[in-house]
Design a protein that fits this description.
By secondary structure, the chain is an alpha+beta fold. The protein is built from 6 helices and 9 strands. It has a single domain (about 1-224), classed as Lambda Exonuclease, Chain A (Alpha-Beta Complex).
Length: about 220
């Protein structure tokens, strides 16, 4: 894996947390809604509300907190591995699980990444949307937007549909800002029982991906 972190200047956007959701600020000072906020505001949450009602808010909040912590730690493992830095230690259950999940993604996913252009890359499309992708670079010989995901149990293709739209938005942002032609989207995912999954969308899927993302974007701007 070759590091080419000076290929593009990703320093023009910063992240801002607000009560109405995450936003980004560009070099001109414009506040721009995040891709994750746009998707969360326009998704069908019927199943999520039913789940909360079934197990109770306290248990749901605890599971959400644990999942967030696990995902953050696994991301740190992967980022540090790519940068050649020391990875997090710790022997408690969450730390061990995060390390083992990261190892699966390194073994089965990152082995196919030829070149890295950016890690935790903030991206913006004019003043319409912005977000941060985990990895930009070259995957199996093609430029790609890549993200790392954790899951409690393996997911079907239908259950990762928002990830597809999320990465489409990031690809469009990168192409808009840097005049690239990124059409490949890759999700590296590992479940808590260490089952690895990889979801890949390429040029043949891209027009539909873009149409679906544009529809969700229009829905969001009708709401705000």
């Amino acid at each position: 894996m070759k590091l080419n972190l000076d290929k593009f200047d990703y320093s023009q956007v910063r992240r801002l947390e607000e009560t109405t959701g995450r936003k980004y600020v560009n070099a001109q000072g414009d506040k721009i809604p995040s891709v994750t906020t746009i998707l969360s505001k326009t998704k069908d949450v019927t199943h999520l509300l039913a789940w909360r009602k079934r197990i109770g808010d306290k248990a749901a909040d605890q599971i959400t907190l644990e999942s967030t912590s696990l995902g953050t730690t696994m991301h740190t493992h992967l980022e540090n591995y790519i940068k050649g830095m020391a990875r997090p230690g710790g022997n408690n259950l969450g730390r061990v699980m995060a390390r083992n999940m990261a190892d699966k993604i390194i073994e089965h996913g990152l082995c196919n990444v030829d070149e890295v252009w950016g890690i935790e890359v903030p991206l913006v499309y004019d003043t319409l949307w912005a977000g941060t992708t985990d990895l930009v670079g070259v995957y199996k010989g093609e430029p790609a937007i890549m993200d790392f995901k954790t899951t409690i149990k393996p997911k079907t293709l239908e259950r990762v549909d928002d990830y597809r739209l999320q990465l489409t938005a990031y690809a469009e942002s990168h192409n808009y800002t840097f005049d690239t032609q990124i059409k490949k989207l890759v999700v590296f995912m590992c479940s808590r029982d260490l089952q690895y999954q990889e979801f890949v969308w390429d040029l043949n899927d891209y027009q539909k991906n873009l149409e679906d993302w544009t529809a969700r974007l229009a829905e969001y701007y009708q709401l705000v």
